[in-house]
Specification:
Elements (H helix, E strand, L loop, with lengths): L16 E7 L3 E10 L2 E4 L3 H34 L3 H4 L11 H15 L1 H7 L3 E5 L5 H15 L4 E5 H12 L7 H9 L3 E7 L8 H16 L4 E5 L3 H8 L1 H8 L4 E5 L11
Parallel strand pairs: 4-7, 4-8, 5-6, 6-7
Antiparallel strand pairs: 1-2, 2-3
Helix pairs in contact: 1-5, 3-5, 8-10, 9-10
The structure holds adenosine-5'-triphosphate (ATP), magnesium ion and zinc ion.
Zinc ion (ZN) binds next to helix 1.
Length: about 270
Amino acid sequence: MRSDKIVSMPSAAPAPQQITGLCDDHGQFPQKLTVIFGKEFKTTCPECSRIRLAEEAERAQAQEAQVARVRMAEKLGAALIPKRFAGKTFAGYIAATAEQQKALKTCARYAAEFKQIAAAGRCLLLLGKPGTGKTHLSVAIANEIMSTSSATAVYRTIGSVLQAIRATYDHTSDKSESQILASLISPSLLILDEIGVSKEKPSDFELTTLFAIINGRYEELRPTVIVSNLDAKALASAIGERCADRLREGGVIVIPFEWESQRGKEGF
Ligand SMILES: Nc1ncnc2c1ncn2[C@@H]1O[C@H](COP(=O)(O)OP(=O)(O)OP(=O)(O)O)[C@@H](O)[C@H]1O
Ligand SMILES: [Mg+2]
Ligand SMILES: [Zn+2]
């Protein structure tokens, strides 16, 4: 039977006695002594306790930092950013003209607001002349979101994607086509570079593959960054209206790169 009566329990432990302790390292300290059933319990040196806690916190922090480093290394490895571009950042982009400043600012904002960008599935198009820093800024976006959030990013040229898928047909690849497509659809951000480089009309295979990637990401509400030398109109006709339409949804951001090449400015 349940009893609602509140019974006050007599405290088993007697009041502690205030004495002076002695620590080998820190000398005298106020110590509490409690005797329970003839057994003595003494508080330890407060300075020793403080040091022990600080050391534990430091160890935990170091462990956390190590886990974060491993996770970041994994993300960076999976991002497949080419060596030449691996270290590209916003800080390393020199914006000497108003157009370059605008390009830099828009890309930096895309990375800073990536949470909202991802929620809306907003795509980004970096379009224009060779050597103007499109790949540089696209990689800077990937580096920034990977290092400041749990987001994952993958960089691929469309040529390397098509080659990887072709390799699945003649069994020179250990992956299946669907595994390759999944690896391009699952990351928080995909950067597809070198779209429309070949002057010829894209083949059905190219268009089908591109559509599978862009539509796959579109369905999952995951944004894609497209990098190309084509202008917006030429890009739409190169990738097909159905792809272009999906890129536009959610409010596509287009940055034109229309200045001279910054590659080896000495010129040859
Ligand atoms: N404004 C800039 N500040 C610093 N470096 C730059 C700038 N613009 C371009 N670069 C550097 O010049 C080189 C070429 O840039 P990048 O490869 O990004 O050009 P791109 O627009 O992608 O060219 P392409 O269309 O030929 O692929 C890179 O090493 C890049 O870091
Ligand atoms: Mg490039
Ligand atoms: Zn001590």
